[in-house]
Amino acid sequence: MNSSIYISSKKIEVISYSYSLRDVSVKQVLTCPLPEGTMINGKITDPSQLASCLASLRSQSSGLFANSTLIVDGNFVFSKRIVVPRLSKKQYQLLVREDFTNAAENSEQLICDYHLMNGSGTETAILACASEKSQIESYISVFKEAGIKLKAIRVGVDAIQNYVNARPDLLDKTFVINVIDGITMLSMIFQNGINVFMSRTRLYSEDYEQFIQSMLKNLSGFIQFNKSEQFNDIESSFYLGLTDADIQLMNEVNPYPDIKLEMLNIFNNVKGSEKLSEHSHFAYLNTLLSSNSIDFIRSYNMLDKLKKQNRPKKLWIPILAGLTAALACPVVIFSLQAARVDTDIKELNDYLTSEAVVVRSEELDQIIEQSSHYASICNKFKEKTEADSSEASVSNEILDLITQTSGGRVSIDQLGFQKSTGMIRVNGSSATETDSAEYVELLRKNDAIKSINYTGYSYGSTGEYNFSIDVELAVREVGQ
Asked: What pTM does this model have?
């Protein structure tokens, strides 16, 4: 029996289903509430508690977990859309891994996968995703402890992109899909069927109305982003994980009358007697994914194989064979001539084994060993010097650029610099909605800055607009 599993911050949901053509028939739905703190933004923080809840569900219907796939979402999943030339499968895998090099401290421990999207001519687009190996292993370990073997681990953003691709009526529009999971919200902007921006927002609220207002303020940031990037105006903002009453209240206080706020009805083709709730979005979207979709378990199993392929070949084996063959030839020739040169060989051996020659040979061996040691030190010093000179660094000019640009309208509250990646995290605030976007555009024009990751702003408790950006410094060439 097929089953789709999604674990939110509040509960585990399991959907048993069968699939034919475009219809999904739901056979059974099981849920289990989770104690607070078991899951935080998709990460497992209490493995034993989660394993206990999974085991409890399995005890209710063991057959339900015979063919199970898990779908995950959270900030531990890195994702991006990449446009590249048409390549082989192995080349795509290497390209995706290279593109996520700076996503973790140890890029070799990243689980990476991709899904072909669309393209024209000699180019194509792929959705690339990655996660730290330890995060995937934590899911595999917890399910194993509960007696459940996972067939695949799918990704939420891939499921949403897959759903949009299957909706011809959405492919020529500009819209936002927002997925609410407790107090977090995943938002994806689509233009002509392509995801052009994605962000994750924590929804701070003290009451129900403030919760609704926080989602509308998030929409304001997307409007400003589309204008700054010269994208089309947003026509609709769709929501998953809300009720009809939530949408009705949002429309009553909607400050953007040109944007439709509505539920995204994804359950149109669902069959069966079991009814899915508004919180079943990811568990259901997982049932629509094909075997070619992103799968972290498949990539996890391929990681060791990929490392072995990238290891240097054992060149000493053919070299040793060649040397052996080369030495064999003169030995044969020497043997044929041995009868005529016995006297010469005896004199040569006597010379080579003489005390003076042996002492000089030992001195030469010591000199060669010392020279190799010093040469190794020089090479390491040279490599270190070149590496240090090519790393991005923060100068007074960079600090002045970040802190004084739009100084009258933007206040910088905190700076953090990571030398190994050349990234500066900037936390700031502004008085109006547009100041932060204008500030980012001014920074982008400076040659010292390679790129800026800006995810919009949030509304502060005292009326300010808070924002965070990641600034990647341009790495200077060696000798500059």
From this structure: 0.64
